Amino acid sequence: MSGHTHLDGGAEKLSARLGIAAGLTLLLILVEVAAGLFANSLALLTDAAHNITDLIALALTFIAVRLATRPAHSGKTYGYHRAGILTALVNSTGLVLIALGIFYEAYRRFVEPPEVNPAVMIAVAAAAFVLNLATALLIRRGSEHDLNLRSAFVHLMGDVFSTLGAVAAGAAIFLTGWTGWDALASVLIGGLILWNAWGIVRETVHILLESTPADVDADQLVADLLGIDGVHGVHDLHIWSITQSMRTLSAHILVGEISVRDSARIQAAIDLLLCDRYEIRHATLQMECENCLPDTLYCDMAAPVPGEAPNSEQQAAGH
User: Fold this and answer.
1) Distance from CA of residue 183 to its chain's centroid?
2) At how many degrees (to 10) do helices 147-176 and 180-208 cross?
3) What is the pLDDT of residue 183?
4) What pLDDT sits at residue 310?
5) How far, in Å, are 38, 206, 208 from residue 277 at the CA level?
6) Are 174 and 118 in contact (CB under 8 A)?
7) Which residue of 69, 71, 81, 290 is 20 to 30 Å from 59, comparing CA positions?
8) Is the pLDDT of residue 305 over 60?
9) How many C-beta neighbours within 10 Å does residue 265 have?
């Protein structure tokens, strides 16, 4: 799971909440499939299909929670924290596909509107709304700092709005007699699901590409480092995230001809700065003397080692 996600000592409680949420979701799926077929309501069947993916999402989230508690070892030196990011990517990608499927089915129903039983639709959707909201609230805590939990929470909140839309569509059909409200509600729900899912997909890809966290200004960070007494320069800087809340940094720090004790003092000052201002709690710093090469701020990982002949790809890039 992302960072430590406040799960230290609480993984069992979170797992229990996920289990309860999964049980409620399974019950809701059975009820909505039966009612959707009986009432011929796309909104109810859409919500039932979404609930199936919620069940899968909750299972994946549960697995990621358990994996995240496993300690790091020689084969996984960062542990299993990225399991939550991978789960978030799978969950959010599934949401995108679901939204596209909803749009297609809604289009078919606009072209050939079927008969819909609004009374059954309203009753079942109202009950589903209450259950979905309760399920979503079970895992809401911690989701603002964890993409894994947030992806599951978005799944469940999508169902909350789906059932709310189904209630509204049922009422509109009952009052107007136009069954197109069912498909229209599904389109609006699908759009909301797509919007939220895309944001999570984008953020998970950002993390998996080892990108600099969006709220970290690298230029300002370098300026802050240079403001520390004894720091003469910074190069070979890398800033990335293991998870949404676990950030790390590596850099070469140029210092003068100083003692090991003075070097440790500078490193402690850098660690404090990174933690307080940038929430970076894991930094690997290499202290170097003046005139060390290469001295670029952001190093080219593909560049040849000094004294080593460039490979064919590097030669091609040079041309």
Assistant:
1) 29
2) 170
3) 82
4) 56
5) 58, 21, 23
6) yes
7) 71
8) no
9) 15
- Rounded CA gap, 189 and 206, in Å? 26
249: left (phi over 0), alpha (psi -120 to 50) or beta: beta
Work out the burial of residue 121: count CB atoms within 10 Å of its CB; fewer than 13 is exposed, 13-18 middle, 19 or more buried. buried
pLDDT per residue as tens digits for the range 67-100: 777 887 888 877 887 887 888 888 888 888 888 8
Cβ(216)–Cβ(239) under 8 Å? yes
- pTM value? 0.69
Domains of the chain: 11-208 (1.20.1510.10), 218-318 (3.30.70.1350)
From residue 233, alpha-carbon distances to 203, 255, 275, 276 in Å are: 31, 7, 20, 21
Place of tokens 């080219």: 300
Q: Provide the percentage of residues in the chain whose pLDDT is more than 70.
A: 85
Q: Which residue has 């399974």 as its token pair?
A: 26
Measuring CA to CA, which residue among 29, 51, 46, 44 is closest to residue 173? 44
Question: At 293, is the pLDDT very low, low, confident or very high (cuts 50, 70, 90)?
Answer: low
The 3-state secondary structure of the chain, one letter per residue: CCCCCCCCCCHHHHHHHHHHHHHHHHHHHHHHHHHHHHHCCHHHHHHHHHHHHHHHHHHHHHHHHHHHCCCCCCCCCCCCCHHHHHHHHHHHHHHHHHHHHHHHHHHHHHHCCCCCCHHHHHHHHHHHHHHHHHHHHHCCCCHHHCHHHHHHHHHHHHHHHHHHHHHHHHHHHHHHCCCHHHHHHHHHHHHHHHHHHHHHHHHHHHHHCCCCCCCCCHHHHHHHHHCCCCCCEEEEEEEEECCCCCEEEEEEEECCCCCHHHHHHHHHHHHHHHHHHHCEEEEEEEEECCCCCCCCCCCCCCCCCCCCCCCHHHHHHHC
Spatial strand order of the sheet with 247-254 comes to: 233-241, 247-254, 280-288
Which token pair is 189? 């729900």
